[in-house]
């Protein structure tokens, strides 16, 4: 049985109303196996709420919904099931696979078919999205298969409260739903409810601890493995495999070995035996996530080895059990000298990993951030993604809004992610989505905490929803995904004017990522945030630091010269045509101009505005757009739950305050640097 939903937490996109279409009908479930029990329990819960019925045998009143495993279908089912099966042979073009499913409607019966139980579970949640439209006019079988084999969320949750980062590193929705002050949280209903939300959008893997593995977290691999197993028990009924972040120094830290050298026989034996013990306790364990030789984390460089040596060590230990190692490519020198213009953090991942292509084991997944820096509001796509055709690649997004408003600002990120996923590399038509689908899939840092609304800002739930849906199908349009989320979360049955509510939410959210971009760092230059906090403006906060995140603004211009001709040469890491496009300020897209070039303030953009006037205009425009969003949200009083309205109002008030601060500081800074007045005579302080 599914656990009862927690009563002290927002239902997000799975409110009881979303199951009305299913729960008000007579349902037949055909098949048996672990996840089928979850499907039956979900349908039973819906029927108990809405007056329908569910059974597992063909005998009984004619069903109006059949959910069936194809291998389990025999004689005695309704004729419509046979019709759907015949239909499927033509439509599917082959097996549906481990997670695929098909939907059809024949006569008065809607049929959901799957080859495996996981497909039936995902198909059930598809029916919740469709609602009554799944039960209208007849339609032929339509197959659905995930584009990505692995659709994963990484939690940056600490078991112990970190003295600087707290219980959740870069978490903006309260504490961890897994851990509390060094111990597992015992309110497991919250974890089960979370697993249910994730399965509803197609997530099938989760890492339960921070990639920065501290002393207590390291012990999850050995003496505290039972804590991980308990979490796996909660995720398993929803088809989600648990992964664990581990420290590369584990043989030294946990076993007292004198070395963690990946080529040392004793080290290899220790990892093999430790991994066997993990699978003995958690047979469906997913594998390891490793951040090595990055920002102080230990790695193979200490022993004169490279990342292929390090990753292959763990891959060999995992291979007999079917596990994978996600080896993060976020590796760079975090102790740079700001005086040295030849050093470029953006180059680092390519420089470290591209030469290793072809040397990684088949069960190594190199996990690459979608941009070359660090989840900035605007970056070019990382050239590493296309540089390693002989290596399985996972593309990493950040659902938690570290640099995009920290879930205090409305910032719907699906338009940005969709842009990245559709980015093409050249004449062969390959895209970022294609590389991820052919390799390690999509991974994102979760934005969930123990906040009653899951994500702190109720509207930030849309980002988690959209990530899961895009990982299933990167072709989906952000506006369509927002429609889905609105329809489920603010169900029409619960609002006096659902059309007005939907229109208003689109007006607030559709362009909110670009609104955020307008009033923060301009034209792809990045950062300009308060060091450490990464919230609010501090134009020179990182300018003379060791972190390598510079904008080089002076009296003549702004931006980083990454050209081959006169700069760091980063543009040369891209294949054509992008290496040529990015090389010149004349051809470089406006939105990333300052990422690639140091240009005069009077440089004219493709938009026809100068750089300095663009900075002034966009910062004024961004604040105006936030002001409009505040008024639009205020108009929804009485159309949404009062607690949701109050929380969003509080967050919008903070967003407006912060946006004005960004506008005033950025505009004043560049006015003082450039000496150029605003063409419209507005105050620049």
Structure commentary:
The chain has 685 residues and is of the alpha/beta class. Helix content is 36%, strand content 13%. The chain is built from 22 helices and 20 strands. The strands form five sheets. Strands 7-12-13-14-15-16-17-18 form an eight-stranded parallel barrel. It has a six-stranded mixed sheet with strand order 2-1-3-5-4-6. Helix 9 (265-281) packs across helix 10 (307-318) and helix 15 crosses helix 16 (478-489). It starts with 19 loop residues before the first helix and ends in an 11-residue tail after the last helix. Residues 144-454 form the Glycosyl hydrolase family 67 catalytic domain. One of its GO terms (biological process) is xylan catabolic process. The active site is at residues 295, 374, 402.
Give a quick set of tags describing it:
single chain, 685 residues, alpha/beta, six-stranded mixed beta sheet, 22 helices, 13% strand
Largest β sheet strand count, sense and barrel closure: 8 strands, parallel, barrel
Oligomer: single chain
Q: Could you estimate the helical fraction of the residues in percent?
A: 25-40%
Strand content: 5-15%
Average pLDDT over all residues: 96
Discrete helix count: 22
Gap from first CA to last CA: 62 Å
Structural class: alpha/beta
Secondary structure tally: strands: 20
Q: Low-confidence segments, ≥5 residues, pLDDT <50?
A: none
Shape descriptor reads: globular
Strand order within the widest beta sheet: 7-12-13-14-15-16-17-18
CA radius of gyration is 26 Å
